[in-house]
Specification:
This protein has 14 helices and eleven strands. By secondary structure, it is of the alpha+beta class. Strands 1, 2, 3, 7, 8, 9, 10 and 11 form an eight-stranded antiparallel sheet that branches. A three-stranded antiparallel sheet has the order 4-6-5. It has a single domain (2-335), classed as Beta-lactamase. 39% of the residues lie in helices and 18% in strands. Strand 5 and strand 6 form a beta hairpin.
């Protein structure tokens, strides 16, 4: 798929998108572009990382509530409720924000960043968009007796278990996976879009997964759907998509133009990569994919602004748009259940 950025009546920029939808067996339902070359899923894998922690029993052991589980899955924008949820996890597990090794940055939420600056307070690791994930991994360390000071190392037992959990979902071998280091410092894996879509189909249906994995995945999915703002932030695409999905969608953005969606009613997963990494092409491409897959009809109305975002000039006047050049090519659509 091509996503065009227009200015006036001319195409000014072009973004190419590869995408796949698949069922829990890995059968493609929608294909566009290269779906086999591995791509780093980045933060789109966070629900699976959270589920790996949940599978060790952290929720019951530390009394974590659904908001805290949702922020474990999050790329949050540093709003007060995000910071409070992460701080609460740390208190419950007997850790401190200084134990987070994700680094600090200003909140992505502009109002929260400005409020912090007005108070003259420095950003802390709690404001890092990945702090919930890191707090969840520290909780997992506590559960299995792993070294909390090296929790980001690829050979730490928590990372070994996390990568094994993620690999089971996409039928990969963690010993041969392409690995890198994510922006927050933890190991990040690469897999093809077909396998990523299959993993999200398993997240949607719980088919083809171990019983203990299924319970953990369900807990993560339910928390995301119940508290979507905790997964991203107020007015963010993931939050609005899950809110409009009304229980029928769980989704997670990833850096460098990645997005993945679990669709329980369609018994499918959907994953895409904007090849040049441009985030602005991600929402319209996702909306086009959901439309092709027959997702909840109300999304077209409720999220029309995300399906074809308007480009504004500095004075706030509309001067163009970001929109797909065509619909996704759907393959084997007649075989979907």
């Amino acid at each position: 798929m091509i996503v065009n950025v227009t200015r006036g009546n001319r195409v000014e920029s072009v973004h190419q998108v590869a995408a796949c939808a698949a069922d829990a067996a890995g059968t493609p339902l929608l294909v566009d572009g290269d779906i086999e070359t591995p791509v780093f899923l980045r933060s789109s894998a966070k629900p699976f990382i959270a589920a790996a922690a949940l599978a060790t029993g952290v929720r019951d052991a530390f009394g974590l509530d659904e908001r805290e589980v949702a922020v474990m899955c999050a790329s949050h924008t540093g709003e007060r409720f995000h910071v409070d949820a992460v701080a609460s996890i740390l208190r419950k597990i007997g850790m401190h924000e200084s134990d987070l090794q994700c680094g600090a940055h200003l909140p992505y939420n502009e109002a929260s960043a400005q409020a912090l600056l007005r108070r003259g307070e420095p950003a802390s690791a709690l404001h890092n968009n990945c702090s919930g994930k890191h707090a969840g991994i520290l909780a997992m360390c506590k559960m299995i007796g792993a070294d909390t000071s090296t929790y980001m190392d690829v050979d730490n037992p928590v990372q070994v278990q996390i990568l094994a959990f993620c690999a089971r979902l996409s039928d990969d071998d963690p010993a041969t996976w392409p690995l890198g280091v994510d922006g927050c410092g933890i190991p990040v894996y690469a897999t093809g879009l077909r396998k990523a879509a299959m993993a999200f189909a398993r997240f949607a249906t719980l088919d083809g997964v171990r019983d203990e994995d299924a319970a953990a995945l369900l807990a993560a999915r339910d928390a995301m759907i119940a508290y979507p703002e905790y997964v991203s932030g107020t007015g963010e695409f993931d939050a609005e998509l899950m809110r409009a999905g009304a229980g029928e969608i769980a989704c997670k953005v990833g850096a460098e133009g990645v997005h993945a969606v679990a669709l329980p009613p369609q018994r499918a997963g959907f994953a895409l990569k904007v090849l040049d990494g441009a985030g602005r092409a991600r929402p319209p491409a996702t909306m086009a994919g959901l439309r092709a897959l027959g997702a909840r009809a109300a999304l077209a109305t409720e999220l029309s602004g995300w399906a074809q975002p308007v480009v504004y000039n500095r004075a706030g006047r509309p001067v163009g748009s970001v929109r797909p050049a065509s619909d996704f090519a759907v393959e084997q659509a007649s075989t979907r259940n």
